[in-house]
Amino acid sequence: MSTVAAGPKGTRTRGRGERGVAASILLHTTLVVATLISLFPIVWLVLTSLKPRDGWLSSELEIFNQPSLDNYVRVLGETEFPTWLLNSVLAAALTTVLGVFVASTTGYAISRFRFPGHRGVMWLLLVTQMFPVAILIVPLYNLMAGLGLLNQIPGLVIAYLTVAVPFCAWMMKSYFDTIPREIDQAGMVDGLTPFGTFWRVVLPLARPSLAVTAFYSFMTAWGEVAYATVFMSQEEKRTLGVGLQQFVGQHWSDWGLLTASAVLIAIPAAVVFLLVQRHLVTGLTAGATKL
Amino acid sequence: MATSTGRVANTARGQAAGADGARGHRGGSPGRIGRALTRHWYAWAMTAPVIIVTCVLVGWPLVRGIYLSLTDATEANVGRTIGVNAIPATYEFVGLDNYIDILTSGLFWERLAWTVLWTAVCVGLHYGLGLGLAMLLHRKLRFRSFYRVLLILPWAIPGFVSAFIWRYLFNSDFGVINAMLKAAGLGAVGWLDDPTTAKIAVIAVNVWLGVPFMMVAILGGLQSIPGELYEAAEVDGATPWQRFRHITVPGLRSVSSTVVLLGTIWTFNQFPVIYLITRGGPGSSTEILVTYAFREAFTGVRNYSGSATWGVLILALLVVLAMVYRRALRRQGEVW
């Protein structure tokens, strides 16, 4: 496992990046165990969803016994799942697009311009992240009711934006801070307006951070339960997080349906995740470290 | 947020000077507002959407929530419209009664103790495991990116899906965890039926969920520590522990302080895991403050004022926590 050029030539001790066989085995064993723990629930979910109709009732440690798509067929055909999915997709997509746009303009403004109220905005963004859902949910429910936004996807999206945008704006701000100011100035010299500079020069450079922001916004909306449970009471307006609770209620549960729909829900999230995961480390830490 | 570090202040001056020099900043001349507008309108325009939405959807509900917490509003006495009849609100201002009630009841302190335990254990394990894994992944090794992707995967699964998966795994009759225990010759455990095991179960799930974020953030922090430092230390004969203690730990300080604070806030407010796995049960033994407040507000006779009071208390706790934390960091000479 010699991977890195070991120190100056002629050193007798092991150089950096080299280790003994025992250490290698230990390292890989630890990582393999950790990976198994992180993967096991997901693998088990997929396997269970592929069991026949009542297969979930058995917990036999069998890998595959009569695989069947029965659960998927039932979820897509006999339940409201497609409607919930559509609602969730709409909510998540709108939250992502609006969230990324709004967070990046705000992040840019607080990164580049000193304007009256600058500190206030930064404070607002930080404090908002601490707000427990519990305190906001009742008044927000009343507010939404007053605005006629209950059981409306836009209402839900607005609520999600208040959750996603503060964090995203912070991350964007920190990332913009790492982009040299000279680049903006060059854009200005070329006659671009401040907004033009932002849109055509800076934003394309901030792609890693945009990816993380998009991921975060998407996941916020895709996985949210509390607001959706309260705001979307009508059957056909439910999102996935709300709807799925029906499959495993107090009196009746069908884990077959649940596991199949869970797989269907996890796939888009995993795809988005795989697309941005390269940027996660760079984007996130540029953001997080300077929060 | 004391972000007015030298760097930021400098850029501020740079911007202002670039526009029209430092002159006319503070003066009370007539055209001041107009000039401020011409200079700052785009900054304001860029932040306006966030400010407006935040003020309407967070500021107003907050004020309203604080007001509700001072009343005796429940579902039964708030104003509402049924058909053509508008029923006026009949709830009254009761001052601090709700606070006194809650703070003198054993329930609040019991829930608070569990919430604190839950947060401390979860964040401690998140951070410890995240740091350990990040340090392993930071080494040169084969399959590194492969391990990394697989280890981050729990983060990519939506929280509520994970909560459901784990509820299934913990199921006492057909859950795989009990099946494994039986296969190993041990008895089945009613994981979610007993207060203690239910607590262990929810903590395990939350740890599983939260480690990837910590790992990724710390990994980024590790990558930002210059390798020369380690080389120099090695040349000087520092042991691995000394290198960890005197290079890695200080190098990670800013990342750590941020992720620990964020992790604490997130865990403290972690709703889906508890709500979807145990519903706060058995009894209310796994109910943390946030889920309890939600239960007050939306089950049975909706107790709006009680829920709002819980909410205000939770917020106050978090704000105090953040301030104490920041002060502690400051004392260590950390500019944050």
Jot down its keywords.
heterodimer, A: 291 residues, mainly alpha, MetI-like fold, 12 helices, globular, disordered N terminus, disordered C terminus, B: 336 residues, two-stranded antiparallel sheet, 14 helices, 2 strands
Please give the radius of gyration of chain B in angstroms. 26 Å
Oligomer category: heterodimer
- Class of secondary structure makeup of chain B: mainly alpha
Number of DSSP helices of chain A? 12
Summarize this structure briefly.
The complex is a heterodimer of chains A (291) and B (336). In chain A, 71% of the residues lie in helices and 0% in strands.
Q: Any overview of this molecule?
A:
The complex is a heterodimer of chains A (291) and B (336). The model of chain A is unreliable at 1-13 and 287-291 (pLDDT under 50). Chain A has two domains: 1-49, no CATH class; 73-289, Orthogonal Bundle (MetI-like fold), CATH 1.10.3720. Chain A is mainly alpha-helical and 291 residues long. Helix content of chain A is 71%, strand content 0%. In chain A, helix 4 packs across helix 6, helix 6 (153-178) runs antiparallel to helix 9 and helix 6 packs parallel to helix 12. Chain A has twelve helices and no strands. Chain B has 336 residues and is mainly alpha-helical. Chain B has a domain at 105-299: Orthogonal Bundle (MetI-like fold). Chain B is built from 14 helices and two strands. Chain B has helices at 6-20, 32-69, 97-104, 106-138, 144-156, 159-170, 176-183, 195-223, 227-235, 240-251, 253-268, 272-277, 289-298, 304-331; strands at 80-82, 85-87. A two-stranded antiparallel ribbon of chain B has the order 1-2. In chain B, a hairpin with a 2-residue loop joins strand 1 (80-82) and strand 2 (85-87). In chain B, helix 4 packs across helix 8. Chain B is globular and about 80 Å long. The chains are: A mainly alpha (291), B mainly alpha (336).
